[in-house]
Specification:
The structure is a single chain. Strands 1-2-3-4-5-7-6 form a seven-stranded mixed beta sheet. Helix content is 16%, strand content 48%. The termini are far apart. It is an alpha+beta fold. It has helices at residues 68-82, 100-105; strands at residues 4-9, 25-31, 34-45, 49-59, 87-94, 109-118, 121-129.
Length: 130
């Protein structure tokens, strides 16, 4: 896959709006001129707690295990700060999700657990101050 070239705003297509719009943001990771991952940031509770960001991440299967997810998380934290968010939270992280280690390595902590989200499996709520 090669070295990560960049993490930044997604290339624009003429028919889509990209970048920050009222606290929303999308970014991509590119390696060898190929998109290998992406994330979004948006307000978690826009009506009453818009200062808390929510983010979601995806890394192409062929690119996993190369540190791209970690770079996306780090970039999203910096970008959320730049957008004026004071905290970031993930509402529903399944207990079997391997990304939990990544989130914890970037300073997120579990602040709650929701039982039986998918069958007997619970989900965790992660939070961190920015």
């Amino acid at each position: 896959m090669g070295l990560l070239q960049s993490v930044g705003p997604r290339p624009k297509k003429s028919s889509e709006r990209v970048g920050s719009t009222t606290g929303w943001c999308t970014s991509t990771a590119v390696a060898l001129d190929e998109v290998v991952g992406s994330y979004f940031i948006r307000p978690n509770f826009p009506a009453f707690a818009g200062h808390i960001a929510q983010a979601g991440y995806i890394v192409a299967r062929r690119a996993r295990g190369q540190g791209i997810g970690s770079k996306l998380v780090a970039h999203s934290i910096d970008e959320a700060r730049r957008l004026g968010y004071q905290a970031m939270m993930f509402n529903l992280v399944l207990e079997t999700n391997l990304s939990r280690r990544l989130y914890e390595a970037h300073g997120f902590e579990v602040i709650g657990r929701i039982p039986e989200v998918r069958g007997d499996e619970g989900a965790l709520i992660y939070w961190r101050h920015l």
